């Protein structure tokens, strides 16, 4: 498996999470799509968050041991905190904003992780 595959999977999952949170309320507002109410299930939302946390811990923690850049981990922590806080009863608009921001922080943390790992690999090659 490519060393960046998990980061790319995490980015894709975070994008899906952000789109789900931003678009499902709009889609459910259209009465013809009322059959999609299952998408509003809290278990689906918690599943996205759980997968995001798992991929962040697995990918970012392992990579940071090599490249020693902790910025991706800090960004992921901010994203995870935003996602967790968004689950509290804070109002629908604030929930959507916090979930989308949390997902964006996770997306950026994995992108930054890929760049940090590539810089680390270039530094190893230039040392040899």
Explain the layout of strands and helices.
Elements: H1 5-29, H2 42-67, H3 71-86, H4 92-127
Which percent range describes the beta-strand content?
under 5%
Radius of gyration using CA atoms only: 17 Å
End-to-end C-alpha gap? 25 Å
Helix share of residues? over 70%
Largest sheet: none
Structure notes:
Helices cover 80% and strands 0% of the residues. The chain contains 4 helices and no strands. The chain has 128 residues and is mainly α. It is elongated and about 60 Å long. The mean pLDDT is 81. Helix 1 (5-29) packs antiparallel against helix 4 and helix 3 runs antiparallel to helix 4 (92-127). The protein has helices at 5-29, 42-67, 71-86, 92-127.
Quickly list its features.
128 residues, mainly alpha, 0% strand
What's the quick description here?
The chain is mostly helical and 128 residues long. The protein has helices at 5-29, 42-67, 71-86, 92-127.
């Amino acid at each position: 498996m490519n060393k960046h595959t998990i980061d790319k999977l995490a980015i894709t999952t975070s994008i899906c999470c952000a789109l789900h949170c931003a678009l499902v309320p709009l889609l459910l507002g259209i009465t013809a799509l009322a059959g999609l109410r299952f998408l509003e299930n809290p278990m689906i939302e918690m599943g996205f968050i759980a997968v995001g946390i798992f991929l962040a811990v697995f990918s970012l923690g392992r990579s940071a041991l090599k490249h020693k850049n902790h910025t991706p981990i800090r960004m992921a922590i901010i994203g995870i905190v935003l996602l967790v806080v968004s689950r509290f009863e804070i109002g629908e608009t604030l929930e959507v904003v916090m979930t989308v921001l949390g997902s964006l922080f996770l997306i950026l943390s994995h992108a930054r992780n890929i760049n940090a790992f590539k810089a680390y690999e270039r530094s190893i090659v230039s040392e040899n």
